[in-house]
Structure formats: C-alpha cells, structure tokens
C-alpha cells in the first residue's frame, strides 16, 4: 500500500508542524508514505467563493501529483471532502484518474480507524482536552455521529483520542455545534462567524478545557484567533499532534 500525503496549503504555510506530525505518525505505523513535492492548493477556496471554474489548474495538478498512489491521506476533513465532491478531470484519462483518487482519499483519523484499524497508541498527553467536531468531517465524511439523529453515537477521532495515555476528554454542552469558520463565510459574514466562534470557545472554557483539538486546523485557527483576542489560556492543537505526542512533559 503506497500512501500519498496531502498537506493542505494553509497547513503547509501556517502550521507545518501538523504536517510533520502526520507524516511522523504514519511512519511510526510502518506506512509507506510519500509527500509529493509538487502539490499545492486543492482549489477549495476558489470553489467556496463561487469560482469553481477557476480550479482547472489545481485539479490538474492534484491529479498529476496523486494519481499513482493506492491511497491518499490528509489531516483535513474539509479538503478531503472537497476533493471527494469536486475533483474533475478535463479529458477521459484525467476523469478516470480523478474518480480513483476520490474513491481512495481519506481524512487522517478515518484512515487510522477504517484502514489501519488502530487499537493501540504509544501517545501520551496528560491534559484536559475538548474535541471540536468540524462540520465537513462530521456531516460530510461521517467521522462522527450527529446529535440530532436518533442513532448510536460514534466518533472515530475520539475513539483514537481515548487510546492516548493521560488524556481527559471533557464533556461539552453542544458537542457538534459549528465554530463559525466556514472558509469564506468568516469573511462574508464576519459578525455571525465571530459570535459562533465565541460561543464555541465559551463551551470549552466552561468545562475547563486546557486544549481544544480537532481534525481541521482551519476551524482550530478560527478558535485560536478568538481565544487570543479574549486573552484566554485555552490552546489549540491538531489531533495529529496529540496522537504523535510521546513526551509527557510537553
């Protein structure tokens, strides 16, 4: 199984340690993982803004970079969902390659639980942690059950977090409420987005979280900005960093 590591552009530029943690974690699990150096943005920002017709270049590049991998893995539910729903080829060959990529791309925790079927981790993170369910991961990729459904609750990310030594997953009053980021939504609807983020942060603070984690660094970035403005001591950390963390003193 040859795995291609897809690192979204905002992680590459702003949070490279998340990409490094993801790569390191996969190597620890003996995954034959490769990071294609020619990768760039998946095109989601343009598509979200109503300019999907301008994503031809990013689509073509994505196909070229990842067409020869058995599986593609990314530490971002948002970008994975975009590829699953919107990746397009310009000719018959590219279209077939795009379809194969869409079938074989996984968000990190989805890959760990569904493909590798991880049941043990050496990770240690002795802190109180609140898990933020990002909308794309939960409602698009079905990484977690939704509270409005009368069905058994499940959460692939939390399943992995419970394997981490010393971690205390705190309860939240609204465990799957949107943080308000929403990509371009936080720009076009700044006031609404900010209020939603403040409410999400307040839920974690009320329940004594030291850290907020999640599968999408974009949502965590939004919450981190609000926490900084409100001078809150709550920190954000991507789930890959926790699952890869072995030093109890960090």
UniProtKB/TrEMBL annotation:
A single Gene Ontology CC term: cytosol
Top-level taxon of origin: Bacteria
Single GO molecular function: oxidoreductase activity
Pfam families xrefs: CCG
Domain Cysteine-rich per the UniProt entry, residue ranges: 3-84, 129-224
Signal peptide: none
PANTHER family: LACTATE UTILIZATION PROTEIN A, UNCHARACTERIZED PROTEIN YKGE
Protein name per Swiss-Prot or TrEMBL: Fe-S oxidoreductase
Protein source organism: Chryseobacterium phosphatilyticum
């Amino acid at each position: 199984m040859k795995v291609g590591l897809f690192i979204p552009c905002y992680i590459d530029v702003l949070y490279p340690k998340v990409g490094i943690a993801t790569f390191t974690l996969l190597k620890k699990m003996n995954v034959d993982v490769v990071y294609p150096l020619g990768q760039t943005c998946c095109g989601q920002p343009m598509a979200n803004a109503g300019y999907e017709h301008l994503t031809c270049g990013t689509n073509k590049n994505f196909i070229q970079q990842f067409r020869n991998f058995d599986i593609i893995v990314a530490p971002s539910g948002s970008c994975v969902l975009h590829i699953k729903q919107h990746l397009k080829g310009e000719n018959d060959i590219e279209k077939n390659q795009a379809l194969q990529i869409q079938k074989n791309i996984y968000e990190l925790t989805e890959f760990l639980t569904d493909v590798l079927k991880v049941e043990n981790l050496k990770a240690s993170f002795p802190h109180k942690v609140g898990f933020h369910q990002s909308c794309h991961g939960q409602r698009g990729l079905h990484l977690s059950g939704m509270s409005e459904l009368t069905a058994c609750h499940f959460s692939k990310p939390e399943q992995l977090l419970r394997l981490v030594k010393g971690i205390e997953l705190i309860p939240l009053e609204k465990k799957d409420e949107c943080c308000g980021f929403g990509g371009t939504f936080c720009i076009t609807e700044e006031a609404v987005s900010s209020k939603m983020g403040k409410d999400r942060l307040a839920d974690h603070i009320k329940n004594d979280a030291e850290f907020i984690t999640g599968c999408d660094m974009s949502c965590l970035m939004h919450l981190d900005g609000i926490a900084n403005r409100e001078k809150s001591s709550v920190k954000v950390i991507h789930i890959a960093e926790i699952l890869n963390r072995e030093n109890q003193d960090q």
